[in-house]
Amino acid sequence: VGVARMAAAVAQEAGQRVAVSLPGVDRNRVHRGDLLVRPGSYPSSFRLDVLLEELEPIENHARVHVHHGTAEHYASVVRVGDRYAQLRLATPAHAARGDRVVLRDRTTVGGGIVLDPAPPRRPSVARLELLERGDPASIVLAALAASREPRSREELARRALRSFTELDDGLTSAVRLGDWYATPEWLDGLRARVSVRLAERAERSPLDPGIPLAELLPQRPWAPA
Fold first, then answer.
1. From CA 162, how far away is CA 166, in angstroms rounded?
2. What pLDDT was estimated at residue 165?
3. Residue 89 · residue 20 · CB < 8 Å
4. Per the confidence metrics, is the pTM higher than 0.70?
5. Roughly how many angstroms between the first and final C-alpha of the chain, as a whole number?
6. Average pLDDT over residues 33-60
7. Which of 161, 176, 160 is nearest to 118 (CA)?
8. In this predicted model, what pLDDT tens digit does every residue of 114-146 receive, in sequence order?
9. What would the 3-class secondary structure string for the chain be?
10. Distance between CA atoms of 11 and 161, rounded to whole angstroms?
11. What is d(CA 39, CA 43) in angstroms, rounded to the nearest whole number?
């Protein structure tokens, strides 16, 4: 009940300081930087893609301290073009798109705005430009392109847009496959690969041209859809 009341207060006045009673939780289990959130509402990731804000030049692969909320992470800065970076963290962060981070060495060297809280290891300028653009369609397509396979609405909510209204607006640019969503390009590529395999099978075995779904598609939750 206490946690529910605290959550209601925060929802009414964002940024308000509160005290939380955690009866039955050993004090050694609570650490600086811990978050009180609904389970599954934020991704846990060792990488953050950010729009970089430099107070002084930050070299590629520079070692920095990343301050996010009350948490501090050691990280390596991987430059992506002139304006973006991927922060590769030594400890996992629980971040949301739009969160701010501060980057420090001996002094504050810059900061950043989180564009993707759980990005792929290989960042691209084109995808980060889509995310920076900020319109729901661009954000959803960029998140789907990064995953390289269909995602559920709940997964996209954790990775992309915090507002479900904005998320649903963005999903209109994606292809719906039952409870899953994909980019049109991904689905076109899958269609092409399936057509080639079926044609090859039909040529080899005209009396039995079919291929079991388990052999045609990877064993993934979205395959039946």
1. 8
2. 80
3. no
4. no
5. 40
6. 88
7. 160
8. 998 988 888 889 889 888 887 888 888 888 887
9. CHHHHHHHHHHHCCCCCCCCCCCCCCHHHCCCCCCCCCCCCCCEEEEEEEEEEECCCCCCCEEEEEEECCEEEEEEEEEECCCEEEEEEEEEEECCCCCEEEEECCCEEEEEEEEECCCCCCCCHHHHHHHHHCCHHHHHHHHHHHHCCCEEHHHHHHHCCCCHHHHHHHHCCCEEECCEEECHHHHHHHHHHHHHHHHHHHHHCCCCCCCCHHHHCCCCCCCCC
10. 17
11. 10
Residue type, 201: R
Phi, psi torsion values for 201, nearest 5 degrees:
-65, -40
As a whole number of angstroms, the distance between CA 77 and CA 105 comes to 12
pLDDT tens readout for residues 175-200: 999 999 999 999 999 999 989 988 98
Q: Residue 141: which residues within 8 A CB-CB, separation 6 or more? A: 130, 170, 173, 174, 183
Residue 5, pLDDT > 50, answer no
- 121 near 147, Cβ under 8 Å? no
| Contact assessment for residue 115 and residue 51, using Cβ atoms and an 8 Å cutoff | yes
Distances (CA, A) of 144 to 50, 153, 215: 18, 11, 24
pLDDT tens, 56-96?
A: 999 999 999 999 988 999 999 999 999 999 999 999 999 98
